[in-house]
Specification:
This is UDP-4-amino-4-deoxy-L-arabinose--oxoglutarate aminotransferase. The active site is at 173 (proton acceptor). InterPro entries: DegT/StrS_aminotransferase, PyrdxlP-dep_Trfase, PyrdxlP-dep_Trfase_major, PyrdxlP-dep_Trfase_small. Belongs to the DegT/DnrJ/EryC1 family. Helix 4 links the parallel strand 2 and strand 3. This protein has 382 residues and is α/β, with parallel strands linked by helices. A 7-stranded mixed sheet has the order 1-9-8-5-4-2-3, sandwiched between helices. It has 2 domains: 4-230, Type I PLP-dependent aspartate aminotransferase-like (Major domain) (Aspartate Aminotransferase, domain 2, 3-Layer(aba) Sandwich), CATH 3.40.640; 233-370, Aspartate Aminotransferase, domain 1 (Alpha-Beta Complex), CATH 3.90.1150.10. It has 14 helices and 15 strands. The radius of gyration is 22 Å and the shape is globular. The structure holds pyridoxal-5'-phosphate. Pyridoxal-5'-phosphate (PLP) binds next to helix 3 and helix 4.
């Protein structure tokens, strides 16, 4: 949580001013500070990350089909579907779980207008190759950077790639405004269109330019965002130390692999994601998840059932034209371990010991959990 005194001071100031929404000083300040931090020309604050994706897509003139990963939070394809576009799912690379440019290329049809890639877990996408695919095929390249605030790619802050990038400032994110989001772009026209669209398409008191929506961020959320931004370097530093501790704790455990490759570039280290290899570890992901939960470790599995297996996309050929073997595998073996300011190095050492113990006694653990009604685990046949 950001500093409470600082947050309360800002909230008092909003209440004193009586200016709660419609582009007040807090939103202005947040946009300026985020733009400075990301070294980007334009930042447009909106009410959440999903709406940021929608306004960005509309402002960039997307039409027809948009290629997205299935290995993402469902907000990515839903945002496109909700505004009448067709999300088409491509596979990701095993190394970093971001869009595989070759798989993307195989999804392109005459109806494709754009690629919407996701910097999953804060791992930068294969930006250069994706840009080449986009340029070769006359497509726009956009990014969902919801996991990647504070990360660099090719020594530039994420936010500066493609035509525009959308970032969620949801409470679960490293930089948050309770609810909120931003569109980041270096394109003047896209920025101008985003600003109009987030406010009903209104240009001034007497004219309306186009259809718009109400996507505005309010002043209280901007106050929370500014407060979060104040402490973000401390949060990231703590996360990075935690990531180091996890690397050490997990490196000796057979069958577990951290899905966030080490990098000399800046990372926010907000997502500690491991892949569980059932054959080597002795237990599958869901079994391990249940054991961890029973031991009080709040681990999470992502992203079940997988966007392409969820309504309204499941079984629809138009949404899934290519096989996605990597995504299919990851959906069954990816696990997120707890981190953040409340998690200490000592906690991580204990989690590491627990993982090692579960691995060493996997057979007995499997038998025990399978017979434990409270856990209700049905082990995989394989
Ligand atoms: C990858 C990704 N895209 C989009 C979103 C949607 O953002 P919001 O919850 O702010 O609408 C989220 C998470 O919330 C996300 O993780």
């Amino acid at each position: 949580m950001p500093d409470r005194t600082s947050l309360m001071r800002r909230i008092e100031s909003v209440l004193d001013s009586g200016w709660l929404s419609n582009g007040g000083p807090m939103v202005d300040e947040l946009e300026t500070k985020v733009a400075q931090r990301l070294t980007a020309k334009h930042v447009v604050a909106v009410c959440n990350g999903t709406v940021a994706l929608q306004v960005m897509a509309k402002a960039c003139g997307l039409a027809g089909e948009v290629i997205v990963p299935s290995m993402t939070f469902v907000a990515t394809p839903h945002a496109m579907q909700w505004i009448g576009l067709t999300p088409v799912f491509a596979d990701v690379t095993h190394a970093d779980h971001t869009l595989d440019p070759e798989s993307v290329e195989r999804c392109i049809t005459p109806r494709t207008s754009a690629i919407l890639a996701v910097h999953l877990w804060g791992n930068p996408c294969h930006v250069k190759q994706l840009q080449q695919v986009a340029d070769r095929n006359g497509l726009k390249l956009l990014f969902d950077a919801s996991h990647a605030f504070g990360c660099d790619c090719q020594n530039r802050p994420i936010g500066n790639f493609g035509l525009a990038e959308a970032i969620s400032f949801h409470a679960t994110k490293v930089m948050h405004a309770a609810e909120g989001g931003v569109i980041v772009t270096n394109d003047d026209t896209v920025a101008e269109r985003c600003r109009l669209m987030r406010n009903f398409g209104i240009t001034d008191l007497t004219s309306i330019d186009s259809a718009g929506t109400n996507a505005k961020m309010n002043e209280l959320c901007a106050a929370a965002g500014l407060t979060s931004l104040e402490s973000i370097d401390d949060v990231i530093q703590h996360n990075q130390q935690n990531m180091q501790a996890y690397r050490k704790a997990i490196s000796g455990v057979r069958g577990l692999r951290l899905a966030v490759p080490p990098s000399s570039e800046r990372r926010n280290s907000q997502y500690v994601v491991v892949e569980v290899n059932q054959q080597e570890f002795g237990l599958n992901r869901d079994g391990l998840l249940q054991v961890l939960r029973a031991e009080g470790v709040f681990a999470r599995s992502y992203f079940q059932p997988g966007c392409h297996n969820a309504a309204p996309y499941a079984g629809q050929a138009g949404h899934q034209p290519v096989p996605m073997p990597v995504t299919e595998r990851l959906l069954h073996n990816v696990l997120q371990l707890p981190t953040g300011p409340a998690v200490t190095k000592n906690d991580i050492r204990r989690i590491g010991q627990l993982l090692e113990t579960v691995h060493q006694h996997a057979g007995a653990v499997l038998e025990r959990v399978a017979n434990d009604d409270r856990l209700g685990l049905v082990p995989d046949a394989a």
